[in-house]
Structures are given as C-alpha cells and as structure tokens.
C-alpha cells in the first residue's frame, strides 16, 4: 500500500506514443541560447523619443529593442507594438520610458533553448534579452532565431549522422554473466545552472553509443534533464542521478537529502511549482518537469519526506516483458 508521501505512476510507453518526442524537441534541450541568439543587439535609451526609435527600427529592420540605462543595465523592452500605440496616440515626441515594457523577461546565454521556448509560450513575448554570467547584455533571442537554429541543427544532423555515430551495440552480447549492467552516476549541484543539462547529454550520448534507438535515447535524455533541473532548482545541497543500463531496461534514480515535498499529489499537477521568484525570473520553475518525465518513462515512483529528502525512480523498458 502506498503511504501518504508516495505517489506511483506506471504505464507502458508505446512506439506510437513515443513518436511525438521528435528530434526538434530533443534539440531544444541540447542547443544553448548563445548558439541561436543575435549578437550585438540594437538598444535604445529611455530618454530617446519614440520618433527617433521609429527611425532606428526602420533603418535597422528590427521589431523591438532592449532599453538600457546609462550603466548598461536592461530596464525595459520597446516593441513595434509600442510604436504603433504611440502613433495611435499621436505622441511620437514622447519619451521611450513612457511606452516601454518594464517587466522584462530575460534568459542567460547558457540556458537551453527549451527554457526560452517555455517563456515564449507562457508570457507571449516577442523577444528575450540575453545576459552572460555577469548579467551583461550580450544578445537578443526571437522565435525566428530559434527556428533558424533548429533548422540548421537538423541539416547538420542529416549530413554528419553516419560520420559521427559510434556504436558499441554488442557490448552486452559479448559479456557472459547472470546480470550485466552499466551504471552511470552524476553529482548535481544546487543552483548550478551553468552546468544544467550536462548529465542528460552524457547519458543520451552513452545510450546512442550502446546502440539504443533514437526514441529510447530521446525519452531518457528528456526524463533525466527534467530530473536534473529539479535537483538544481529545488534542493539546498544538490543531489545524485544514477542510471543503470541493462539489456532489457533503463533504471533512473534521482535523489537528494532535503528539503522534501510537502504535497506530492499537488506537485504532480501541471503548472504547480515552488520555485522562488528569482528562479522564475531566470525562466525556470514552470511546474512541468514531472509531467514531462511521466510522458517519457514507462514507470515512475516519487517518494519524499519533508526535511529528509526526495527520491524519484523511473524505468524505461527496452524489451517487452515475457509472459510467464
């Protein structure tokens, strides 16, 4: 019987269901914002007039620009929609700070594209300023930038897949034992966003080299990424991700020793998150991590005790279980 602080999800992920996890979705987890963003973005100052910005937008052929202070910090966003509103008001001589949007959502150059996509979907914005590790403005990211980056990556995949693919698909077949497995273990540090996604990328690469099919590698990569982000965002001391690869299944174990989850049933609901405002401002903590995991794995068990820690166990089956 399940205890009140345990929740179990179990189902078989069929090939038909797994087809919805596309290579494009996988690339969104792999490509960093810095690889897709536009560099040296045009910026405007808050004391400029809207007429001056109209001329700048037309000459530079842009539809928006960050508004920066005298010290270079981003304090707002001015869009073509703001210019249209200004023209409707017949106030082209008004200053930028009267029409700019001050609630600015931003991303970091080290973030994966999937985090920027989540912001675009949830916030309905047209562009995102990109900051480096020292919070300096170094680029701008639009939906068009993401599309071009994904298309370029898909093209590179097509031309280089056979060249760069290395497989050891007979590894398990060549070893005689009662039980053969490969164990991969990664220590995940709390709030270490600069290394976010490295464990999932390494695990996915290992699976490909072991001969796993594309869908298995994608499902495992996404599940591990979301578990990895949960450790980075929600833990105080970080945690561990342990992956055991066997001929018939992949077992994923993500655990930490605090602070625990008060209400697991609530945590499983789409959109629910306990992430801080600071984390949300970075574009994380949308509350879809456990939902995305459940979509990718065949079995999921979440256990947590407040003050002691949380353990998330997942399984992906590589072969159909034989009936007895």
TrEMBL record:
<feature type="domain" description="CBS">
    <location>
        <begin position="37"/>
        <end position="94"/>
    </location>
</feature>
<dbReference type="InterPro" id="IPR046342">
    <property type="entry name" value="CBS_dom_sf"/>
</dbReference>
<feature type="domain" description="CBS">
    <location>
        <begin position="100"/>
        <end position="156"/>
    </location>
</feature>
<keyword id="KW-0129">CBS domain</keyword>
<keyword id="KW-0677">Repeat</keyword>
<protein>
    <submittedName>
        <fullName>Predicted transcriptional regulator, contains C-terminal CBS domains</fullName>
    </submittedName>
</protein>
<dbReference type="InterPro" id="IPR000644">
    <property type="entry name" value="CBS_dom"/>
</dbReference>
<dbReference type="Pfam" id="PF00571">
    <property type="entry name" value="CBS"/>
</dbReference>
<dbReference type="InterPro" id="IPR036890">
    <property type="entry name" value="HATPase_C_sf"/>
</dbReference>
<dbReference type="Pfam" id="PF02518">
    <property type="entry name" value="HATPase_c"/>
</dbReference>
<dbReference type="InterPro" id="IPR003594">
    <property type="entry name" value="HATPase_dom"/>
</dbReference>
<dbReference type="InterPro" id="IPR051462">
    <property type="entry name" value="CBS_domain-containing"/>
</dbReference>
